[in-house]
Design a protein that fits this description.
Largest sheet: 7 strands, mixed
Order of helices and strands: HEHEEEEHEHEHEHEH
Strand order of the largest sheet: 5-4-6-1-7-8-9
Structural class: alpha/beta
Mean pLDDT: 84
Distance between the termini: 9 Å
Helix content: 25-40%
Radius of gyration: 18 Å
Low-confidence stretches: 1-11, 21-35, 284-290, 296-313
Number of helices: 7
Number of strands: 9
Length: about 325
Amino acid sequence: MSNFCINFKKTMIPFLWLILLTHIRWVHTADLANVQISQVQNIFILAGQSNMSGRGGVINHGQNDMVNETWDGVIPPECKPNPNILRFSAGFQWVEAQEPLHQDIDLGKVCGVGPGMSFANSILKRDPSIGVIGMVPCAIGGTNISEWARGGVLYNHMIRRTEAALQGGGKLQALLWYQGESDTETLEDAKLYKFRLKRLFKNVLHDLQSPTLPVIQVALASSIGPYKEQVRKAQLGINLPNVRTVDAKGLPVGMDYLHITTLAQVQLGQLLADAFLQTQTTQAVLLPIQPVTSNAPKSCSNFVFDLLLSPFR
């Protein structure tokens, strides 16, 4: 990483967090009182970084290392809106879900297709009696797991949004987690990843008073730095009884070698749905299972970089 990138990161990250923190506080104080009672019966948290937020279909038209991103607007049939699928907006209100799910959450980025809509549609297709699904988007692109530590902005935001979503009724069904690409940049972060990940999951279950909540994490398909295998080993080695692991290795990655493609997001959502439905058949005793894996061929499309973070990613 060049000195320019390092200095840019040191100066810009605090500024970006200030903007995010201001946004979170404003939303909380202005809109929390407006949480509406809904018919949501099944609530899912979506958290992590950009591949959970969704970059499927995001195209960079920039030249000479300039960023000029747009989303192509292509929505696969598996990700179409459904009146039985809602999302918890940045304004703390339930609205009908549609792509991009994180457009008002992952600020300063161009968001595209993520795994959430495919996940929800897959569950409804396989179990139409499950009732209305409500998703709580919380993912923020480019974030290191240390930034999700208890007491930090991202962690507090996730817990606050989830608690607000539950005020209208419904049952918290699972945490969907896809993160780790940013922790492949340094050996220190890669070595600490397993400890930090286990601590995060334990804290979330404790603070949401949901000790048996299923946690479905995704093992990396791509990375920013050279320590992907170390982080993947940590993810695949998690042995907490509530945790299921979906292995994204082999899913198609775009031309930036970081973000998985739209079709890959569709497949990932279906794999996440498979893993969640498995937990419903073992509610009495949640035991670790083998990762759900993909044999999808690798391909390249969609040149994607995270806006503002691209100089050091």
